[in-house]
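Predict structure. Chain length: 397.
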Amino acid sequence: MPLSSVRDRWVRNGLVAAAIALVLAAGLFALGAAREDAVLHERYARALELALRSLDAQQAAARVSRDLARVTGRGAEAAPRGEPSAESLRRLTDSLETLAAEMAALRTAGAGAALPEKELARAEEAAARLLALARDWQRRPASPQPAQERLALAAAAETEFDAIEAALADLLAARRAHIAEAARIEHRADRIARVGVLAAGSLGLVLGLLLTLVAWRSMSTNALLMTQLSQLAREDSLTGVANRRTLDERLPQEMARAARHKYALSVVMIDLDHFKRFNDRRGHAAGDALLRNAAQAWLRQLRPSDLLARYGGEEFTLVLPACGEEQAERMVERLQPMVPERQTFSAGIATWNGMDGARELLAAADRALLQAKRGGRNRIVISGREPQISLPLRLVS
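Prediction complete.
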């Protein structure tokens, strides 16, 4: 056999062997990339779930803080002096029960995710003690010294609520650390994928296309999950409307725009009537469906410039630019028949006076909402037009 033929056969066999080795290496690389992609997907899915639970727990804690301020007579949203109403005590108890449920759900969702168990347990114990205080207050007869009773409740509640807030802050820090770690892993996987694509392109078009496809799929999935994380931070996952964080960002912007263009700005607080009774009778799944369907029905009636946000629980907030009191009232009246299941809601309207801050404007609308609920529910009250309590005249002889 000629030497050239032997050499050509060796070269051909060597090329075939190299091609087979490249195909095997590409297959192993593709399997490794697919495995890394699956791990990243699982990490992000867990991060999404825990972020959702953490946001729900923070919203529940904010509602507890507001309701506790009403009962104890502290803060901007405090109830008038005197014995707290049964309604405010019931709202506090409901808020504490919701907070306990959200923290239990957070513990279940975070099993095996390196959550700070001690802080979470402390928060759950503190919430249980607060709930016991609220229930004891409900059972207790009216006191002749309500101010001292409120101070005692506030002193007992401060330590418990500080423990809850500290634990939720630790949980949020842990979530941020997990998301940062997932981002670092994603960056490393993305860098490896790019290097693999460049190397495969130099070795063969087929292997390059395969590696490019794997890298594209990995980056697309990670980008989609990062978009979902960003959306979750600004949107209420149950109802699909804006969340409290978006409301806190948008309201000052709308107030500045209203001042610049010199038009009216109204804020509406909406609370579904007897929502807890509906939940108890129909179940939580039906309650979630009611919130979701009501919010989506309202959205279809609003202008593009209006903002609908879930304030917490069954409470929603409307921000209506270029709307005075009467226009806002007509808008709310148009929303009343949109609630499914023949449910009703109470609403409080406050129009910005051009001087107060966002917190004061929301507080004014919330006070009007409280008057609407105290007045029998299924009604609209405009701030500044609340029914006044007439005092008996005392004749001086």
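Summary: The longest strand covers residues 265-272.
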